[in-house]
Here is the input.
Amino acid sequence: MFLVFTKPGARKVQNIRSNPAAILAPGDPAADFGVLLVRGLAEVVDPPTSDLVPTPFFHAYADRMADIGLSRDEFLATYSLAIRIRP
Here is the structure.
């Protein structure tokens, strides 16, 4: 299972609500497009994002978030919707 955090008004949210088929491409597209394609079913998760984001996530991305001036609270407020993708 994968969790993707997004803005509530993002087009992908509308798309998933109308058709749950999804493809996730984790990886680094800059490295000769070295990504893995994962097909699955997606669903919008009801609990607030703040209940779902594991603490290690913020430790792993602390430097990247600081580079763009995004605090933990701002992340949770901006990307307040979670999408669960089951392969």
About this structure: The CA atoms of residues 64 and 70 lie 9 Å apart.
